[in-house]
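Appendix B. Raw example, untouched.
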Amino acid sequence: MSKKRSSKGQPNPNPSWVETYEIQVNGRNITQGTEVSIRGERGRFRFMKHVKTDTAEWVDVVGGVKGVKMWRSFRVDRVKTVHRKNKIAENLIKERKEAT
């Protein structure tokens, strides 16, 4: 069996790509872990990063319908809602740990 590849610690696939971990959409600031809804998709997604190239711009997110975890990429204009309250289990657990 082959090893599962991890994107952690790897350089950008292309040196001209600019990755950022904060972005402003619909007048709201989004940081890593912020929950968003995507126009035309079911479920909630956690924001991971924003990528900008010479010709395109997109956001990488993780999530989807409850119980299913997928890594997806969408154009920035498809971000419909930036949620104030977390509902994804991983985010709720993280909040509880930080509160104690």
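End of appendix B.
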